[in-house]
UniProtKB/TrEMBL annotation:
Residues 1-36 are annotated as: Disordered. Residues 1-18 have a biased composition (Basic residues). GO terms for molecular function: endonuclease activity; RNA-directed DNA polymerase activity. Residues 22-36 have a biased composition (Basic and acidic residues). It comes from Lasius niger. PANTHER family: REVERSE TRANSCRIPTASES. Signal peptide: none annotated. It comes from the Eukaryota. This is Endonuclease-reverse transcriptase. Residues 41-68 form a coiled coil.
């Protein structure tokens, strides 16, 4: 196992957008049911790349939808159908019942599209607010978010956080030794991982790999099964992913006006799959301590 702090994030970063269609494309991609023949870092790197491509595609699709607004091809086709029936009614006469029926359907369609658009904008506004606050850590005392002072140089950030971390640039403990599991050290159960994933919150800031919690929460059974098998490979000691050794430090104003680097504290953002794995281990440790009455009453 190991970790190292890597980089300082000084502003918002586009993390792409996870969509239902993106999840379907991921699940249709070959190889999610395998991967054990690849080295652990190669396998994780491949999956992160695939997920990243879908996140970019999802952001592109979302941007195009915002440009179009609520009106789409379905609305256009329905309106053409209404006008066609109207012209026929005016030309041939009759009760106009078909026209009134289609016009009612057209109005209901437009109303539904508008409501969906308003709901999407509301969700995006909520997500953007959460992303900007980073892990919903809000400076409640000041009732506002204080931006990062762009005049502070990277060397100052590095020195400041090195001092906070004990004067070292990073701490890395090399792993990768095969583990021999004892009788009580069974592999990670699918249910254990599922419970941790269910507790993940949407809209949280992602780590250096850019993979948000939504990938694991909304990715479906196939992606969840891959995550379960991958975490068991780590548990068995096949290696500790290099990506899991990197954390991105986000500076937050702690006191003062944020003019000096000493007025900031840091929040370290780790890869989301790493947090899932650690969540499983934390659950096991807590259960063990409770069984042995090691926790105070």
């Amino acid at each position: 196992m190991g970790w190292r702090k890597s980089g300082v994030r000084k502003g918002k970063r586009g993390r792409g957008k996870w969509t239902q269609r993106g999840g379907e494309r991921i699940r249709e991609t070959e190889g999610w049911d395998g991967g054990e023949d690849r080295e652990i870092n190669e396998e994780l790197g491949l999956r992160i790349k695939q997920i990243g491509e879908e996140l970019k595609e999802g952001e592109k699709e979302s941007t195009e939808a915002r440009r179009r607004g609520w009106w789409d091809e379905e609305c256009g086709d329905k309106r053409k159908e209404v006008w066609k029936v109207l012209r026929k009614w005016r030309k041939e006469g009759g009760s106009g019942e078909e026209y009134r029926k289609l016009r009612g359907e057209y109005k209901l369609l437009c109303k539904r599209k508008k409501e969906e658009e308003n709901g999407r904008w509301l969700r995006e506004a909520q997500e953007a607010r959460t992303e900007g606050e980073v892990w919903q850590i809000v400076n409640r005392e000041r009732k506002c978010w204080k931006g990062i002072n762009e005049m502070i140089k990277m060397e100052e950030w590095k020195g400041h956080f090195m001092r906070l971390l004990g004067g070292v640039e990073g701490k890395v403990v090399r792993g990768g030794v095969k583990r021999i599991l004892g009788e009580e050290e069974g592999e990670i159960d699918r249910g254990e991982l599922k419970r941790v994933i269910e507790r993940l919150k949407k809209g949280k800031a992602s780590g250096a790999d850019g993979v948000p919690n939504e990938v694991w929460k909304l990715g479906g059974e196939r992606i969840e099964e891959w995550a379960w098998r991958f975490c068991n490979r780590v548990w068995r000691g096949e290696g500790w992913p290099e990506q899991w050794k990197d954390g991105v430090i986000v500076p937050l104003v702690k006191k003062g006006g944020g003019e000096r680097v000493e007025e900031y504290r840091g929040v370290t953002l780790m890869p989301t799959l790493y947090k899932v794995y650690v969540g499983v281990l934390t659950g096991r440790l807590k259960e063990e301590m409770e069984e042995k009455a090691m926790l105070p009453p």
